[in-house]
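Retro notes
What went well: the complex prediction finally ran end to end.
Inputs used:
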Amino acid sequence: MEKESLNILIGGEAGGGLVTIGQILAKSLVRKGYSILVTQDYQSRIRGGHNTFGIRVGIEKILAPKESIDLLIALNEETVWLHKEELSHGGRVIVDGAYCIGDIVCVEVPFSQLADKRYVNTAALGVACSLLGLDEILVATALKDYIGKKITEVVETNLDVLSKAYRWGGDQSPSVSIKLKPVSKPEKRLMINGNEAIALGAFSAGVKFCAFYPMTPATSIVMYLIAHAKGMGIVVEQAEDEIAAINMAIGASFAGASSMLATSGGGFALMTEGVSLAAMTETPIVIVVAQRPGPATGLPTRTEQGDLEFVLHSGHGEFPRAVFAPGSIEECFDLTRRAFELSERYQGPVFLLTDQYLADSYRAVDTFDIKNLPQFGPSDVAKVSDTPYNRYQITESGISPRLLPGLTQHLVVADSDEHTGDGHITENLSVRKQMVEKRLRKGRGILEEVIPPERSGEARPDLLIVSWGSSRGAVQEAASMLRGEGLSVSILHFSQVWPLQPSQFLNTLHEAREVVCVEGNATGQFSRLIGREIGFQIPKRVLRYDGLPITPEYIRLQIKKIGTRGK
Amino acid sequence: MEKESLNILIGGEAGGGLVTIGQILAKSLVRKGYSILVTQDYQSRIRGGHNTFGIRVGIEKILAPKESIDLLIALNEETVWLHKEELSHGGRVIVDGAYCIGDIVCVEVPFSQLADKRYVNTAALGVACSLLGLDEILVATALKDYIGKKITEVVETNLDVLSKAYRWGGDQSPSVSIKLKPVSKPEKRLMINGNEAIALGAFSAGVKFCAFYPMTPATSIVMYLIAHAKGMGIVVEQAEDEIAAINMAIGASFAGASSMLATSGGGFALMTEGVSLAAMTETPIVIVVAQRPGPATGLPTRTEQGDLEFVLHSGHGEFPRAVFAPGSIEECFDLTRRAFELSERYQGPVFLLTDQYLADSYRAVDTFDIKNLPQFGPSDVAKVSDTPYNRYQITESGISPRLLPGLTQHLVVADSDEHTGDGHITENLSVRKQMVEKRLRKGRGILEEVIPPERSGEARPDLLIVSWGSSRGAVQEAASMLRGEGLSVSILHFSQVWPLQPSQFLNTLHEAREVVCVEGNATGQFSRLIGREIGFQIPKRVLRYDGLPITPEYIRLQIKKIGTRGK
Amino acid sequence: MVTMDDYGQYDTAWCPGCGNHAILEAVKRALVSSQLKPSKILFVSGIGQAAKAPHYLNANLFNGLHGRSLPVATGAKLANPDLVVVVESGDGCNYGEGGNHLLAAIRRNIDLTLLVHNNQIYGLTKGQASPTSGEGFVTKAQPDGMMLSPFNPVAVATAMKASFVARGFSGNTDQLSDLISQAINHRGFALVDILQPCVSFNKVNTYAWYKERCKPLPQEYDPTSHETALKVAFEWEDHIPIGLIYKNDRPSYEERIPALRGGPLIQRTVDRKRLHNIMEGYF
Amino acid sequence: MVTMDDYGQYDTAWCPGCGNHAILEAVKRALVSSQLKPSKILFVSGIGQAAKAPHYLNANLFNGLHGRSLPVATGAKLANPDLVVVVESGDGCNYGEGGNHLLAAIRRNIDLTLLVHNNQIYGLTKGQASPTSGEGFVTKAQPDGMMLSPFNPVAVATAMKASFVARGFSGNTDQLSDLISQAINHRGFALVDILQPCVSFNKVNTYAWYKERCKPLPQEYDPTSHETALKVAFEWEDHIPIGLIYKNDRPSYEERIPALRGGPLIQRTVDRKRLHNIMEGYF
Ligand SMILES: Cc1ncc(C[n+]2csc(CCOP(=O)(O)OP(=O)(O)O)c2C)c(N)n1
Ligand SMILES: Cc1ncc(C[n+]2csc(CCOP(=O)(O)OP(=O)(O)O)c2C)c(N)n1
Ligand code: SF4
Ligand code: SF4
Ligand SMILES: [Mg+2]
Ligand SMILES: [Mg+2]
């Protein structure tokens, strides 16, 4: 029987090539027209340990990862032991004959006959693809695209192994195969992960400068930028530390280059003084904080939504800001653009809060619309006459005319001290008061433009699930599951978590019989924020803080546990 | 007529000796048995500019600074022009004849006849003290105590000038004098400011190590520690930057020395990664954040309460903490001790949130009780048997047995990564979950020990003023003023601002007809916190953010402006 | 013609007698002698007494955080290499809080001029020892005397083969303004460590103390010899050489960056076609 | 008698063939040869591949933040000078993120041993250039080759007259463990820069590359001559001297601090009488 969807997990040691075959398999599936969703789980080491690359694939859009495994590709014995409990009914394992365990369904592959030790991963790929019914040519092309441009001998050996494995797979009894139902009208789509989408979003928003100090899971954003820096005419500077990174970005932005940063919690902590500087000097800057479990070094390669409050209040003193939290690959692209737009318009720090799960999660998406490339940037803002130029002129909107140093006869002066309209240091306390108010007035504009939370499901549900950021898909799927069980469930999902505009959602909250907030942290930071901002308390929470992404099943089970008053 | 209380202001250039005579005058008044409250207003420069040293003095306890001036001691002309509008009815100015302005009451002193230019400040002191009716011997002694131990020639010249000035003052018509009513039973009291009290509190709590990088208005805490470091057997280390400072303090504390830090917003921003490290490694550490107006460099020598939210959410990841905000000199001492106690007991970061106003404000206080010196410290905690030692043993309270490295045969291992009970790095995700919960459980204990807010005034008032930290005295006096005007006013003042225990004050809030929150910031951070924690919104706020301290009159006027529904 | 008037005349917040006044004057003279228009120059400074300097002349200015002016300047220069970027701050800023950025700036050899007002003290915060304070130097914060060895910026920069290493003295403004001109005209990172009395807090390294010791390098001194420079760089105590101590002609950073060959970043627009191709790469 | 067994044997998370394995071995041998008990030693490390090392032996350990091990170690040593404190981390940790702390530690000359596993790469974050990466070195993050001049820790430390400056190589464990012993026994700050291949990300500075170049200093080499050391410190490229390069006997920091003369801080109790007197001073 052909399946509508499958959950495939590849497991093995770091350095054992599981990401390579995972990528090739996923790419092949996407090219065949399937939807996919990749979840990567890896340890903080380069070789050894236990890593997994999970691909959920199907004809319909895949929203979230899943626990139960239909096809386990085990590159070592440990993988079998670690994941055998997760096998679904009918699930099977592609594994070396030596490692099969009695009570599971194994496709016992004689790897040593098919390939040299170094190519076991490719052999496993070949067997799997043959069982899945993917054409060998499709997979071979994806393989070449992935590793091809480098060394031809390696490519050839890989193709050989792939062929052998296909042949071996073809020889197995048809009962072993687990074919996917074909997609009727396959569309051309991108296979792209969250971090790549952010990089693309940044390019399309006109990013010109990025400074960074490597930090998982943010580094790959920067690596994508670097890969195309020369071509796109941007500079990406590896800084001596994160403090340097943010100050460089501020300097570049002050001089006129749209700038961004990408880091994770600990690196961001070092940037907080700079956040305050960007706010005081009213310098646009986009900061991506890719969350991972803390405190301190925590679990560097896992996921969490634990830095919302930290980012929201980062930097000493008071100033407006905006915080976006993408919930899909598409939003990674769109909200990055939006972040640049807002930071240029309101001249200050704007944040993108993502996490390891979303960063590393590949999905199939339609191509992004880049026809319409908005050219924000300082030049639009400046309508300055010949009179003395006041960089920090007091205005109704709080937004002051911004010129760039060196481009006109006007002098541009910015100061981290409190300053007068012309940017020079002052200790005049009534000017101080006006400047505080001017800066804060920009917050009103930001509030007017806030992206409303997404409401789905019927009005006045028995259960309203509130969520934010990367758990979006999981919540959607969980809601479907619960609806399937007869519960009336709606969703209120936030992709912009600051500022909050109560009028957009207060009623929705009040109308629900019961509200549960889903978050990837241990203290319910977003529920507390809602409590603070609109006085609506959400004591019921589904929280996860073990380093793994929130899944639909996890939400479903937790909601059952909490108990709902639903019918 | 003799006065019950007076407001004296000394004004002049930085480097002109106004702090010297301010200190001597204040000390003389305290020794005579008066209560005082000093407010210092200075610019971020060493010489020149306009600085003031205000002394409010009286027989009854003085709670807060005041705007209207009864005696202005003007060391230069600018002072007269800047402050003449603030003179009270009957207020007068001690000033060089040349600088008197028509419409004010001047005591025109021929300074050039009384003293060399360099001693004008002492001459002014002499004239003022003579008019105030203070014995010359008292003032001369205070003078010697202040500058005496250094160079005798300078002391003698000062004493000469003082005498001359006293004689000149004595020759003036009695109508010019503004005598204070004598104190009936003068008590021996300390004249001490907020930062000194913090340093004393730290000594009495057994501080052993402090690392710092200078930053106004926190530096003087450290300077007081240094002055007595050798004698008290503690080490105070000037670090290369704030990041080094917090990491040194963590290292020292890990090794067993109770450690503290003192900084201001920008310096604290650099410490936030370290805050998270202290939490993860469960290392006790006390951090004093002396607030000044931000963002960025802001107004380095002025006051604000703008970093509450920043401190409260500082550090990536989730962990418990406590935040104290002293409202008086006595509380500076007591809460510093308390901070050490809690940080040792719960093994993590504890904060003291003060500000420039309180830091620099001298007052007369009873001697602190140091008979009872609690010896907290790691030795109490450790009850470890011979079995393998687990630094991070999972316990009911979340508190694990703490040994010090090098003192037993047990090895002490701490890790910024997630770790197992023995402190070693782990990627076991169920251990991760347990460790998160263990750390957070310490928050319950902290919550149980929270210091309740101080409630004063009648129950069910028309107006309840909510306040926190340094504005305590101003709020008390404002409440008296408003009561005097027939309003029913009560106060709810917080000296510990985190965590909050709703049961301690929720009723008080609900029972008031109207609630106003008084804060030294522009966004109402504490009111929002209350909203978040207990769902009680306080939209009416008295805020100040021009860099000056909140005064009773300021509160009174703002409350009138907001309008209250009171009778 | 750019004249002194173009750079204006302002009241300062410095103490009378402070060495900063003379440095400000020397900077202005250097700018005039290089005939640089105020609008073409960007000053970047940190926090401290020294860091206030650029507020007292006409130019573009980014007065940022304590210790962080070098990275801001680096970012600005990379964004727009047409700007002449001069960094001005104290010894605390550059050798204390900002020490790591100094190391990186030297290694990058980006075309910036760094003027360090080195008064061997933290002035603005009222007199704690700075990284350059002498051993045994007593302050309120170091009552038993400074116990760390002083940081020798000239020696470290020379050891790192920085491309321009000079030492000036606020008491010799002629030489100083000349050194500053040279530094500005140098392509690459140029450090000018400027000895300067702080009359309020440094009672050891006074004007007279410096005056007695600071001696210009002889005319025939060859700053291109690393070996000689490494010797001269360690001279201190009784004889402090001032002048251009070491120089080489490593290429400057911004000249080497491929993306900058197409002109300043700030003038670029998004290349839609290329972006489209990048996107195609994800099929 | 302390033996290798006291330091245990653990599984590591390092790649097979990584130089870290040999360094770990050398460290253990040095501890045994110095007859130090595990409980008397405190290791402090940062974050990176190198920084995991102390998890793989028995000792006290504080494994802190990336780049911040020196200050933690400084605090611990000041609190309890009886502890033997060894800092172990990578080149990124110590010369990149933590550069400012290295400068300060050298100036302080506090009695710590700093072992830098220098693989000229950021290993744990998958291969970006580190401060010691050679000019032109190509990585994913430096596709056009490294453009910053490499940081030469030995030269900078020698220029700063650090009291103990050595370079070791993971491929010469005999000499390395001897250098580590000496460093631990040295009173004052001791830097041992240890060259180490990273088989996964550094394909230029391989084991063979180092092996060919790293040559022990001759027996007769005199590490107490600053002048000679300053020359040797710059040797690289074809010939890389390994061994103790420079040494002096500046007093160590913790010995000079008056408050520490009364014994370790952690043993003190509050002197109530003195505190009372301090309070009296406020009357
Ligand atoms: C992060 C941070 N830490 C500390 C300070 C406080 N601070 C201001 S200026 C200064 C020292 C100034 O010394 P230096 O750079 O030598 O300048 P100078 O005043 O001597 O010219 C310090 C520590 C600050 N503004 N920011
Ligand atoms: C503040 C901070 N920034 C960045 C990181 C990410 N990070 C972890 S290890 C590392 C580099 C490690 O390089 P190195 O110190 O040379 O050690 P190696 O892995 O090469 O042994 C980085 C950048 C971090 N943990 N913390
Ligand atoms: S304190 Fe020193 S450095 Fe600052 S202005 Fe005065 S003399 Fe100059
Ligand atoms: S990545 Fe490099 S440094 Fe890290 S363990 Fe592997 S070989 Fe060693
Ligand atoms: Mg200085
Ligand atoms: Mg390394």
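What we learned: The pocket of iron/sulfur cluster (ligand 4) is lined by residues A 46-47; D 14-15, 18, 20, 49, 119, 123, 198-201 (CB under 6 Å).
What to try next: split runs per interface for comparison.
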